[in-house]
Predict the structure.
Amino acid sequence: MKKTIGGLAALMLTTAPALAGGIERAPQSLAVLFEPGNYVELSFGGADPTVSGRDAAGFRTGDVAQGYGFVGLGYKQQINENLSAGLIIEQPFGADVRYPTQPNPLAPNPAVDGSVVLGGTFATVNSTTVTALARYKLDNNISFHGGIRASRADAEVGLNGLGYGAISGYSVRMDPAWGAGYVIGAAYEIPEIAGRVSLTYNSKVTHDFDTRENINPGAVTTTSVDTPRSVTLEGQTGVAADTLVFGSIRWVKWSEFLVEPAAFTAATGGGLVSLEDTTTYTLGVGRRFTENWSGSVSFVYEPTGDDLVSPLAPTNGRKGVTLAAVYTMDNLKVTTGINYSKLGNARPQTAGQPRADMQDNDLWGIGIRVGYSF
């Protein structure tokens, strides 16, 4: 029972994808390190956000947030009683935002989707992260973990519409680039009650992108962009037979995620994106119903900040619920989760002025994880 219910929280916390603060799509959990013995898992799924509203001219923006999929791989090797190692491949950051263009801006119809203020604006960000880890467990149930994280990312951005004034029509492409950082943390466990608390720090990762801007044709410059540092506190404990309470607090320093291509910054005096730091809270309860079936419900809350946001990240906080189920058969575990999140209202701005009002937005996500112990 302890083996089954003890691993439940980690599986439930990371099953279904969500649109978190900034451009984060997954919480970068190191849960695979705490699986007993040798373990391998494959995860995949997708999310469908809906983010829409009206621009400052009164026209419907249409749905500006595109759906996305994800895949992930985790592997843990128990080297001896105290030492284990792991490898995690995931896609923690990403964006696909596109503002539809008003079909006929000379004779606009407010009932037709398409913004004249931000129409044609888009941002695409892709990333893949590989993390190599080690964990050493002391005899007093305290353990330390850490490792190296390598990240590959690329991006393309276009700014269009009346809201951008003279800079409308600007576009930039940042070619794929690698960056490296580190992970470090510690945990304390109470095996008798499936109890564990862990604290993990992820350093920032700097990518130096070869950059091409259409306002500086033919030139290739370098843009340094930091994916933000973060601190995650996770905990779980058994509270009754076959019942577990779990949760997490995650802080991400999004204010250091600055995208400042040379020509754009020289022309405008600022960067492409300005984001606020976020703190995300998760609390849930898991229950084993039979020898084969377990389930959970968890709630996530990310407080709202300033409702004036970047058009490239047009949401502000969230509240969500995730339902998950685990089927266990011998050494095989199949986890399925579904998430519904209500995304906070926001007002995309340029030059400090609101250009749209995004209201009543939400997200559906589903994920599947297949794990095998050996």
The longest strand covers residues 170-190.
